[in-house]
Amino acid sequence: MVPFKKILWPTDFSEPSFKAxxxxxxxxxxxxxxxxxxxVVAPIPVPSAPSGPTSFNIAVYKDNLDTSAxxxxxxxxxxxxxxxxxxxxxxxxxxxxxxxxxxxxxxxVDLIVLATHGLTGVRHFISGSVxxxxxRISNHPVLTIRASQKE
Length: 151
Hints:
By secondary structure, the protein is an alpha/beta fold. About 45% of the residues lie in helices and about 20% in strands. The protein is built from five helices and five strands; from the N terminus they run βαβαβαβααβ. Helix 3 (about 95-105) crosses helix 5.
């Protein structure tokens, strides 16, 4: 078996992603690998200049999303990842698949472990598949953990 030294686990904080975390954590423990826990905050569509006064502050909303993601990732790292592992939380912004691959390249990871949500039909067509795109564009090995049919 390949000696994995760096493993990247992307999360959207869903139950399927936590199933993938179980696999990533076990592999990281087995190989004494460094685990990168990554969350990508999706871009917020900004309408052109709104007419009239508005009380919605997009910059504050983005900051709140970022703060919330960082806190949630820290909680996951504290409560769901083996404490004896070297680990790094990463919160970034952009297209999820592109950012996952970019970070994997930047950190020179040996493996990406991510969940598939099991979407089919129209739901898959509309939302696409981050896992599918990562598998397609990544230069790194990708282990996909399929969500159960119930999820």
